[in-house]
Amino acid sequence: MSQSTVSEFSQATAVTRQGDHSFTAELDAGWKVAGAINGGYLLGVAGRALRALHPSTPDPLVISTFYLGPSKEGPVDITTRTLREGRSTASYGIELSQNGAPTISAMATMGNLGELPDDVGTTATPPQLPPPEECVGVAEASEDFKKAAPLIERFDMRLDPATAGFAVGKPSGRGVLQGWIRFIDGTEPDPLSLLTFLDSFPPVMFDLGRFNWAPTMELTAHVRALPAPGWISARLSTRNIAGGMFEEDCELWDSAGRLVAQSRQLARQPRG
After folding, report:
1. Where is the Acyl-CoA thioesterase-like N-terminal HotDog domain (predicted)?
2. C-alpha atoms less than 13 angstroms from C-alpha of 258 in its C-beta half-sphere
3. What does DSSP assign to residue 69?
4. β-strands 36-37, 59-67: how paired?
């Protein structure tokens, strides 16, 4: 992709400043799932507004978001409030509203990932995946699936065949999905795109034979490092389904083998 070309993601998450703490944006219908705007895309929009608040803290470190109602394509109002601005981090509240009603409310701490120390100590291991060319392209999904989730056409997404059995009616029952993701237009990953990738794969409940979409109630995302160029690998899992709800944990690893983002969300259990 030419450096002079504005990426689809940048265009779709663009915000217009209206005041010191207010913005507007236009939510793009191409980022919908099951009739509503995808929650990960909304995180990208929120992150874009938060990035504009202070030049020394351009990157989301943690954002905890409550989804209060479905968002639709079209105009959205964004309001922020400063909770604390320090030397290396800043914390804010942010709310997205449509037609006067809030649809998401979040708290975030922003920083500068490029200035963090580069020492790493972890017991986490990246998902063991076949190369992308040996995985199942989500672009091969049925036209009905694409119509219900136009979001997937924004990505080049490849699922590990070992966790893609749901696509042919044979879910593994383990509650695990894993695969590769990048933007379809070749845009390299950055911290804001990681926010979106965390909530862009099919729901992990598909691997348990529950194929309806699962609305997110709350999602907390941690961005841990600036991602290297290239594919992002992902592993999603769930371990506890109770009270009509389930958790979905997601890890994102970059092409350099670093854990660059993590999330946990609580979602409503799909029926059927």
Report:
1. 28-111
2. 16
3. S
4. unpaired
